[in-house]
Q: What sequence folds into this?
């Protein structure tokens, strides 16, 4: 995509915004993990353990997606043999991690 007449690259701005949101999510999830871990040490409940696993998987998802965005920004799509620019692998891995996390949340909520 070509930059707009004002010199702003919409895709670049979107990528930077997504990276900032990803970093914010990582910080929030680390804070949640701290609270859940503190609670688990006191209660030893199965539900809190599930929340710990769920938040850990969401943290992993955000780290992976943010890392791919950062690598894509600096390396560029399609310029390397491991094809970091192909969106199928990052999107699939994110969706798989989300599926696992949501399954765990549903299981602990249902019980």
A:
């Amino acid at each position: 995509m070509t930059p707009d007449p004002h010199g702003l690259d919409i895709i670049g701005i979107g990528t930077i915004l997504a990276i900032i949101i990803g970093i914010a999510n990582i910080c929030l999830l680390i804070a949640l993990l701290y609270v859940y871990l503190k609670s688990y040490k006191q209660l030893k409940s199965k539900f809190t353990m599930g929340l710990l696993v769920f938040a850990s998987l969401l943290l992993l998802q955000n780290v992976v997606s943010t890392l791919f965005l950062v690598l894509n920004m600096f390396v560029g799509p399609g310029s390397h043999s491991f094809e970091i620019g192909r969106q199928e692998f990052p999107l699939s891995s994110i969706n798989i991690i989300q599926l696992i996390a949501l399954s765990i949340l549903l299981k602990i909520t249902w019980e």
Q: What stands out?
A: The first helix runs from residue 10 to 43. The chain has three helices and no strands.
